[in-house]
Amino acid sequence: LGRIMRPDDANIAGNVHGGTILKMIEEAGAIISTRHCNSQAGEPCVAALARVERTDFLSPMCIGEVANVSAEITYTSRHSVEVQVNVMSENILTGAKKVTNKATLWYVPLSLKNVNKVLEVPPIQYARKEQEDEGKKRYEEQKLDRLETKQRNGDVIFPVINPEPHTVGYSQSSLIHLVGPSDCTLLGFVHGGVTMKLMDEVAGIVAARHCKTNIVTASVDAINFHEKIKKGSVITVSGRMTFTSNKSMEIEVFVDADPFVDESRGRYRAVSAFFTYVSLSKEGKPLPVPQLLTETEDEKRRFEEGKGRYLQTKAKRQAQMQQAAQH
Amino acid sequence: LGRIMRPDDANIAGNVHGGTILKMIEEAGAIISTRHCNSQAGEPCVAALARVERTDFLSPMCIGEVANVSAEITYTSRHSVEVQVNVMSENILTGAKKVTNKATLWYVPLSLKNVNKVLEVPPIQYARKEQEDEGKKRYEEQKLDRLETKQRNGDVIFPVINPEPHTVGYSQSSLIHLVGPSDCTLLGFVHGGVTMKLMDEVAGIVAARHCKTNIVTASVDAINFHEKIKKGSVITVSGRMTFTSNKSMEIEVFVDADPFVDESRGRYRAVSAFFTYVSLSKEGKPLPVPQLLTETEDEKRRFEEGKGRYLQTKAKRQAQMQQAAQH
Amino acid sequence: LGRIMRPDDANIAGNVHGGTILKMIEEAGAIISTRHCNSQAGEPCVAALARVERTDFLSPMCIGEVANVSAEITYTSRHSVEVQVNVMSENILTGAKKVTNKATLWYVPLSLKNVNKVLEVPPIQYARKEQEDEGKKRYEEQKLDRLETKQRNGDVIFPVINPEPHTVGYSQSSLIHLVGPSDCTLLGFVHGGVTMKLMDEVAGIVAARHCKTNIVTASVDAINFHEKIKKGSVITVSGRMTFTSNKSMEIEVFVDADPFVDESRGRYRAVSAFFTYVSLSKEGKPLPVPQLLTETEDEKRRFEEGKGRYLQTKAKRQAQMQQAAQH
């Protein structure tokens, strides 16, 4: 799986949008898991994205490079499929290759005839028993995390009039998008990858408004897709900055869906997630980021929570590096 | 110039978006006027859209139909070109053709070397002297109108928290868009057609939120492009309903540009316009529209102004029909 | 039919992709032949692409130029239509026009009600009897050729681990694409032009990987569309280099379709074709190409076959030039 990165896939500095990469990752995951779930006789189904694990953007990709995406099923539970997707950027002029992403996605097979019916997943064969056990552990962990975020979902972004630079209100942004046919799967629901691309677009604008430089996606926290979004809905994607470290910005993004032609249902929160951005100089070096000015109690609390996530991630990474050094 | 209409060009009822048609119209106008302005030896230039006259959408276009777009230069002043663009929809299965739009656009040639320099336009030949005189009259009229709207441009859309259905705050909407390379002309500024497509997208969402049915663009009032928008800018497109008649809705749309990487300049109003929408039943018949509930003094004033425009247009149309009947 | 070429239509050197041009050619052919086949009362139908004759890319097209596409029906058999499509590039700044392509396409009318039913084509009028006879000869020739390629279709591309530069395995590439609604005709099958664009994308990646320079499409051998591809299918497009001359590369491209939700059918070969690329210097001059290193017996055989095609084309061209010189 490969595709050349085009000008529209990138910002004006030539760096491919994180959202473009997330969309490719999700498409690869959707194909492999739909294929797997239809591999045994039975009701035809389409795999719908339920969750993406935390994803780091390890190195930037540029216009003209080829993105190579490979996907593998690594675990199956009764009703879900875990897919591991790797992305490499390849400069086809020099031959240089770099790993840009390693992502883990969870899919659920929905019946083509009845979209509310979750079908059973054909089990995969494991080379070693430990692989199954580790997969099961990952499955249980993500299940717990999904429940937790579901409870957090009531938050709303309030508009601010005449905000000061570097405050939360100054950079917060939102867009609306009318869900068209090409945004949707065969079931008539929005591809998870389309949603993630819009989320990254909003988060990127928040980050750029805050620091007014060339910014790139550094990582995305785990994203849970609690609710499907139907063709013809209007989706509102809103982002606000929650935390800044010396060289990174954390942006919280909400996706609200309004299936307005369908009167039985009002607007609802479909997805939310945290994106982390860094600011780059013309030479591609990370730049210091202006500190976020928090004003309200809520903003201060969210800043502290963001700091917690930042320190936790930093600690995890250091532990991994030490472990790697020992081996 | 022709193109098959695809699902992505249309809403879920299969009606092609007015914005898609406006974008095709503008591309045809840009080609013919750039070609004309470079037809004599001299500095190379690109024609930039300055204004679109009021445009009616005479009949809906559907997925699978072919849009045939033809353009003709009808007047040249010293520094501007008037282009008449006609759009016909053609059902290639039945052979049925319908006029869907007749639009008049004004372009200004900008030097490729110095984008702030307006070049001279080679004069066209008129078959009859009256054509030149009528063209000059249209030129003077639009010049006046452009000055007037420039003064109206300070208005801002304020957010409303927990609005009631059918109020202005309930349906008002906005989107942000990061200007990419494919949105821009050779000069590195946004194509007028791209801006109009985004404006129609927002206006359509406002209309759909208000009446929760299938809506289509009925007309667009004259649009003036006062300010260019540079590649890499973030544009915010906001819409609010200003007036409803029994069977139509008027939506005011603002486009603000934020060239945030360019520190010398803050956010500015680039374009504003009025779009009129109608609501259609499944059989394509116009439906009654819920009346807009106005709350503030400003909303009431804008409603009355909208009513004025509505009655004026109605009177003009009746006069034209009587005139046509007499001939 | 005309359109301004945008950054996304081109590679990073600014040359418009051959695939973009092939897609425009096919759209023009589909419009004119669908229109013709519905010109008499009878069952409504959509013209489906059956074959494209060998097409040369006579001169490169650049971003900002306008592509003018014109189409004409040149022959009709009982069940097929031959369309001649010409493409000219126009620099609207200088007024310079160049013929970039002359293509011949064959379409077959499929009933809108029953996609497996081929309808009859209304006969066209010929100005001279010889035109009909020459058309009939072309018709018979292409019919034969279609049968031959059908038999060749079993071939598969195997991955190679750690390949050496300039071997076949080193540059071979593949991409997968999930067929969306905007890729499809009214019948719900992929437009031939969409398939050709993907094929050119893969062939271009293979060529760039081999010679690591700016490459452009020089020609495409006759392409036969044996099998339709349904909406919702996954298509895998794979390319491998088969032959290099001093200044050109031949790449074989396969398209396999997997209607994976549709249980009645497995993966199948839908199309295959040969693309020829040349490598260009920064000044647009053809560069020498590294020789392809063949390793296996099959690779050596394919190289010889490619050489045969190359010499045959060269001989034909020389004969045409001599003929032209004599007149």
From TrEMBL, chains A, B, C:
Compartment annotation: Cytoplasm
Gene3D superfamilies given in the database record: Hotdog Thioesterase
A GO MF label: carboxylic ester hydrolase activity
Keyword field contains Chaperone: no
Domain HotDog ACOT-type per the UniProt entry, residue ranges: 1-113, 169-283
UniProt biased composition (Basic and acidic residues): 298-308
Pfam family, one: 4HBT
Keywords, sorted A to Z: Cytoplasm, Hydrolase, Lipid metabolism, Repeat, Serine esterase
Any GO CC annotation of this UniProt entry: cytosol
Gene Ontology terms: biological process: acyl-CoA metabolic process; fatty acid catabolic process
Residues annotated as catalytic: N11, D200
Coiled coil: none
EC number: 3.1.2.2
InterPro entries: Cytosol_ACT (IPR040170), HOTDOG_ACOT (IPR033120), HotDog_dom_sf (IPR029069), Thioestr_dom (IPR006683)
Span list, region Disordered: 297-327
Top EC class, one word: hydrolase
Ranges of biased composition (kind: Low complexity): 318-327
Chief localisation class: cytoplasm
Protein name: palmitoyl-CoA hydrolase
Name of the encoding gene: Acot7
